[in-house]
Amino acid sequence: MLHVLTLVTLLITTFAVPISPQSPDPKTITIAEARSLPLGTVVTIDGVVTVPSGAFSSSTFDQGFAIQDRTGGIYVSVPDNLGIKGTWRNFNPRTGISFRPTDRQVIRAGYGVSTIPFGDNTYAFNFPVKQNNQFNAANAFVPPAGVSMATGFPAPVVANIPSNGLIDVSADPRLRNGSFVYFPKDLREGLLHSWNVAYQRELGGGFTGEVAYVANHGQDIIQRLDLNAGYVLGANNDGRPQFATFGRTASVTAFLPYHTDYRSMQVKVDRKFRNGFLITNSYTLGKGESYDGGDSNGSISTPIDIERSWGRTVNDRKHTFVSSYVYNLPSPQDGWMKQVAGGWQLAGLFTAQSGTAVDIVMDGALLRTPGNQQRPDMTGSANILGNVGGGQTWFDTSVFAAPAANTFGNLTRNGSGINAPAYYNLDASVVKRFDIGKKLAEFRVDAFNLTNTLHPNPPGNTFGSATFGQITSAFDPRLVRFGLRFVF
User: Fold this and answer.
1) For residues 8 and 165, which has the higher predicted lDDT (pLDDT)?
2) Which class for 307: exposed (0-12), middle (13-18), buried (19 or more C-beta within 10 A)?
3) Which of 195, 293, 301, 451 could be a cystine partner for 314, CB 3.0 to 4.6 Å?
4) For residue 10, what are the β-bridge partners?
5) Domain residue spans in the chain?
6) 287 in helix, strand or coil?
7) Run of H or E including 3
8) In terms of DSSP bridges, do strands 344-353 and 319-328 run parallel, antiparallel, or are they unpaired?
9) Which pLDDT score, from 0 to 100, does residue 11 have?
């Protein structure tokens, strides 16, 4: 059982005022005492947060939080900008143009900018200074040492916050060994620039075709970088920037701006709903790249050499084909035949995708550069063998070798060219609608992965492990669902 006591150092104010110097040794006072002090006084209180940050806005429309002790409660105001400089740069223009050379052809082009919101609330939840004291119980039936219903929590252990706001972490082992986060004051939201050029043509028979170039570029997309990782190959902890001065080995996670890219050709052939039949077909040939597995708020795996982390995103698939259809079977108009043979509908969705990239990694013990992901040397092309199951390999593992000590392997993130198995799937539905008096009922059968096609997970990607190159699991077997709905 974990009991948490939250301590907050705050400035008593309603609007922005100069902060008076803080005592070198702040004393904890009750909330009732804090409420009686003049505006602009800096105090330290302890209590329980009863309303978390962002649960509601105060009269000044900021996203603060409420804290209480036995003498009362107080609202802790948090400025809207959380100390981060504002910007007018988040200007999101959009424009488009279309040209119709004939009645059967259209050419379109467009460009737009979108703001990518900051995807992590770490900064907001800990602003300006939040200190937690934890009291751990041996089990759920015994209170922590020194804690009881009669006496409450023991006196809090308060970290000294100097008047200049700079905390000397070397003076306290709890702070020295803790993980920190860093946010530049000029950090801004990222921008996504998107553009496309498309040609569409009527093909006849109710079909239309379209081919398009679709792309985007992520500007200042937020990624995480460990500032206290090893920045000297082979130096172990001595290569950490904060080790020699402070003896720190814990991470300092910085949220910093980087970029992403996506390029694709997209082709569509569709038939609008006509005579009870609709079909859509789309194909994409594309590539997405970034510095981490996803698109934003991820972690760069090689802080010492950031460009080694540039590569395909975790969801990048070179080829994607999707086809869907809906077909209402012809129905008799009257009599009992309408009830039996009428109201039937068939629908399906077929998906075929090439595999995602396999990022080959290995243990970093011989690299001796903490916080950096090691990868092996690749000595040749890794042929896809296509085997699935324990003891068999999906690709040729013999072309990988351990690099020399204190050096990176020649592979970069997702740089092996090996893909996981392709994905093929067919979902289908059969629907029967029938009248019950003036009401309508619908019975349906939905089959996911109708053909029960094997969907293998990616192969083991850790060089030197017992399952390296092997596929030992799968996902999404066939699932059939029955449903009955009444419409009143």
Assistant:
1) 165
2) exposed
3) 293
4) 43
5) 2-83+127-167, 180-487
6) strand
7) strand 2-11
8) antiparallel
9) 41
CA distance 455 to 8: 51
Distance separating alpha carbons of residues 66 and 78, to the nearest angstrom:
11
Q: Which residues pair with 447 in a beta bridge?
A: 428, 480
> In 379-422, at which residue ranges do the beta strands (DSSP E only) sit?
400-401
Average pLDDT over residues 107-111: 97
Q: What is the pTM of this model?
A: 0.77
Q: Which of 88, 49, 46, 42 is nearest to 67 (CA)?
A: 49
200-230 per-residue burial string, b: 16 or more CB within 10 A, e: under 16: beeeeeeebebebebbbebbbbbbbbbbbbb
Burial class of 94 by CB neighbour count within 10 A (0 to 12, 13 to 18, 19+): exposed
Long-range pairs, 323-327, Cβ under 8 A, ≥24: 323/279, 323/280, 323/281, 323/282, 323/349, 323/350, 324/279, 324/280, 324/348, 324/349, 324/350, 325/277, 325/278, 325/279, 325/280, 326/273, 326/277, 326/278, 326/279, 327/276, 327/277, 327/278
Question: Could you tell me if 192 and 113 are in contact, meaning their C-beta atoms sit under 8 angstroms apart?
Answer: yes
Each residue of 382-408: pLDDT tens digit?
899 999 998 999 999 999 999 999 999
Residue 125: strand, helix, or coil: helix
Q: Tally Cβ neighbours within 10 Å of residue 245.
A: 9
Q: SS3 string of 373-387? A: CECCEECCCCCECCC
Residue in the block written with tokens 């107080």 = 74
Spatial distance between the Cα atoms of 472 and 393, rounded to a whole number of angstroms: 10
**Tokens standing for residue 347:** 């629908």
What is the residue type of 168?
D
Q: In this structure, what DSSP letter does residue 176 have?
A: H
Cα–Cα distance, 313 to 389 (Å, whole number): 26
Of residues 437, 376, 436, the one with CA closest to residue 411:
376
> Can you spell out the DSSP letters for 191-249?
EEEEEEEEEEEEEETTEEEEEEEEEEEEEEEEEEEETTS--STT-GGGGSTTHHHH---
Q: How far is CA 456 from the centre of its chain?
A: 23
For 107, the enclosing helix (H) or strand (E) is strand 105-116
